[in-house]
Write a structure and sequence with these properties.
single chain, mainly alpha, 6 helices
């Protein structure tokens, strides 16, 4: 009997999977519980990304002021003042971005470390029937590849999910100004 026929027969018989089904809330709370001592870098990252976005949105505003000063016949002192402000803003944006990358990496690596520990601890508590049910290669995959994928996703979500809405918000504000 083919796999498709077996699956259809199982679904028609109304049998349900013995594996528990988790909702998004349970998954997020489990992952958040694995942050533990790396919670501070995880919470610092959104603030650092916000600082980077604010400065990146303010730089074109200062550049426009520089162009206006040049159009009005501003001298070297006006150009130098605006140039100094732009350099400081660019360096501050770079510092915020670098710090956000570092804190995000620390938090994601710590999450992966704790998650591996938690999964390994859970596997150690399996009964013999559960151990027989899962292959060793499957369990090793959960401890390595799956955890690394969670780590990478956490990094991308932490920076991207904060950066995109902030960039839209501050861009709209700067467009009105």
């Amino acid at each position: 009997m083919s796999i498709r026929k077996k699956l259809r027969k199982t679904l028609e018989a109304g049998e349900q999977s013995s594996l528990p089904q988790y909702g998004l809330k349970e998954i997020i709370s489990t992952l958040a519980g694995s942050l533990r001592e790396f919670g501070k870098p995880a919470w610092a990252t959104p603030f650092l990304v916000t600082g980077e976005v604010v400065l990146e949105c303010a730089i074109p505003f200062v550049t426009a002021q520089l162009i206006d000063a040049l159009a009005l016949g501003g001298g070297v002192s006006a150009i130098a003042g605006h140039a100094a402000v732009l350099i400081v803003m660019a360096l501050a944006s770079l510092a915020f971005g670098t710090a956000a990358g570092v804190t995000c990496s620390i938090a994601a690596t710590g999450l992966a470390k704790n998650l591996r520990h938690d999964v390994f601890h859970k596997i150690q508590g399996f009964s013999f029937s559960n151990i027989d049910r899962f292959s060793t290669s499957s369990l090793v995959t959960r401890l390595t590849t799956d955890t690394t994928n969670v780590q990478q996703s956490f990094m991308m979500i932490t920076r991207g999910a904060i950066r995109a809405p902030m960039m839209i918000t501050f861009s709209i504000i700067m467009a009105f100004l």
